[in-house]
Amino acid sequence: MSSSLSPSSSLTRLPPAPRLSQVMGERPSPVVGWLANRVMDALCALPASMRDGLARFVGWLAFTLGIRRRVALENLAHAFPEKSEAERRSIARGAYITMARVVIESIDTRDLVNLSWVAPEAPGGDWEALKAHVATGRGALLVTAHFGNWERAGKLLPQWGVPLDALVRPLKGALNMRIVDNRVAAGVGLIYPKGAIAQAQEAVGLGESVLMLLDQALPAKAAVFVPFFGRLASTTPALAVVAQRTGAPVFVMMGVRDASGRILRIEVEGPIPAPPAQEGPDPIVAHTAAVTAVLERHIRRNPGQWLWLHRRWKVQPPAAELAPGGKE
């Protein structure tokens, strides 16, 4: 069962974790950075309807120009063989527009997004379970995907009293660094790849919840391979490892747009129990597969909101791991 967050679900706004507020990455030169930020300021000052219109145009243009269009359509052909070519092209265009919307919304330092919240599906739903767990002073593990508006979804939790740290990568460029700065300003702590598992364990022990994206390809030696839209996909085992070591429950959190694209709601599903504390890879793989299956279910409901442009299946599993239904 999944539930949606509503304003009445809010807790007390929390500041960021000071130890995880360092921003790593490559900033542009002062002049380039100043000029780029003034352009972004001007963009953010536009009315919401104009910003969204611009996002739709940029997404349509990128699709029309064929930027990674072949990758998106190939991914969709594998994921939805039952759909027509026209249906898959429509889904792909939606993915481009979603990406443009996320960028434009995420550079706004005022964090103004037209939001409408629906009530939880039932009292004691999954958001209530997450809130109750956080109230005990223990951290949870949260997982999402490049879907809807994952940036905005993550920024909301500290405002609702959930201390949050996110696993991120060092970025570069004025646009990316502005997005990262906005994460910290929203109260989100940053955990970088080096020592990520240890830092995530520490965060959970301190009562902070940790957010991970679980829909990106990893090199084979660092990954486990689990089914995703009928094919084995290389996936980080970090979530399952931290869950196993800490016993923390996992909740899937998705920022879902409505048909207009400008109204967002947060859907929470869980808890997914931690894998048993036993040696060997099987519990880690099974847990990662279970969480990935939840992500797939959400993406199937709103396929135009996922990032089909990413080469999710580019890393081939070892021959020993290929099985019927998981072949490339």
How does this model look, in words?
There is one protein chain. The chain is α/β, with parallel strands linked by helices and 328 residues long. Helix content is 41%, strand content 16%. It contains ten helices and eleven strands. The strands form three sheets. The chain has a seven-stranded mixed sheet with strand order 1-11-10-3-7-4-6, sandwiched between helices. A two-stranded parallel sheet has the order 2-5. It has a two-stranded antiparallel sheet with strand order 8-9. The protein starts with a strand and ends in a 27-residue tail after the last helix.
The averaged pLDDT comes out at 88
Helix content: 40-55%
Question: What is the rounded Rg?
Answer: 19 Å
| SSE pattern | EEHHHHHEHEEHEHEEEHEEH
Residue runs with pLDDT of under 50 for 5 or more positions: 6-11, 119-124
In short:
By secondary structure, this protein is of the alpha/beta class. The chain is built from ten helices and eleven strands.
Overview features:
328 residues; globular
Describe the secondary-structure layout.
Blueprint: E1 2-4, E2 25-26, H1 30-44, H2 48-64, H3 69-79, H4 85-106, H5 126-135, E3 141-144, H6 150-159, E4 164-167, E5 171-172, H7 174-185, E6 188-191, H8 196-205, E7 209-213, E8 224-228, E9 231-235, H9 238-246, E10 250-257, E11 264-272, H10 282-301
Parallel strand pairs: 2-5, 3-7, 3-10, 4-6, 4-7
Antiparallel strand pairs: 1-11, 8-9, 10-11
Helix pairs in contact: 2-4, 3-4, 8-9, 9-10
